[in-house]
Design goal:
Translation, Eukaryotic Peptide Chain Release Factor Subunit 1, Chain A, alpha+beta
Length: about 230
């Protein structure tokens, strides 16, 4: 397993120019399962091509963008020990991949930032995750609490969230405009939608808050997320 360092995690969280592709797929250590993982990666590449064309990239730009991911398909050494899950991140200025010690849901997200929520359960038990978050306190008595997505996402973006709980087994698709603070939640994912739980978690961490990743039944107060505000 190779998990991101503190500096790598922060780099992935920060804003990048252009499209950001996040790919997740389950992998196994046996030959037959490895072939299935390679096929899944091929399918992810095809889907990424389609979505990048929607972002108005030319054929040449799409080919160059996906070249380092495509190269992994022919890298025999890479597939000798793929772990149990594979996460790949690609933007015009960055390419990273991580072998994960547990199953990852097969998923591809293309938006203007990387999608990191699937990795948070492992990182939440990693000391480096808490160094990045800085605060270990669950100080529930220190500030006002809320389960309102319309309050929590803007508060996370502006650094007002001290502690955040998000449901790892749920997704909440929509769009948040940080300029106007307008937030729209959609029942199903649309083009360029974000998982607002991922947005809230990423912004909380970037502003040195604490994030706790749990099953939805364990989120305080019910719902997909809950936050304690700094002020």
């Amino acid at each position: 397993m190779n998990t991101p360092s503190k500096s790598e995690l922060r780099t992935l969280m920060e804003k990048h120019n252009g499209s950001c592709v996040s790919m997740f797929l389950p992998t196994q250590r046996t030959g037959m399962e490895t072939q299935k993982a390679q096929l899944s990666l091929r399918n992810h590449i095809r889907e990424a091509e389609h979505r990048l064309f929607l972002d108005n990239l030319s054929s040449r730009q799409v080919e160059e963008f996906l070249e380092p991911i495509q190269a992994l398909l022919d890298d025999e050494q890479f597939w000798l020990d793929p772990g149990d899950g594979l996460a790949l991140f690609r933007s015009p200025d960055l390419f990273r991949y991580y072998r994960w010690p547990f199953h990852l849901k097969e998923q591809i997200i293309v938006t203007d930032h990387f999608y990191l929520k699937p990795l948070l359960p492992a990182l939440a038990n990693d000391e480096r995750f808490y160094i990045l978050a800085l605060s270990q306190k669950e100080n529930a008595g220190a500030g006002r609490a809320s389960n309102n997505i319309g309050e929590v996402v803007p508060a996370a973006y502006y650094g007002r969230v001290e502690s955040l709980f998000i449901a790892i087994d749920q997704e909440l698709w929509g769009i948040f405009n940080p300029i106007t603070s307008a937030l729209h939640v959609h029942s199903v994912a649309r083009y360029r939608d974000d998982d607002l739980l991922d947005v809230a978690a990423t912004q909380t961490l970037l502003h040195n808050g604490s994030v706790y990743v749990v099953e939805h039944t364990k989120v305080p107060g019910g719902g997909p997320l809950a936050a304690v505000f700094r002020y």
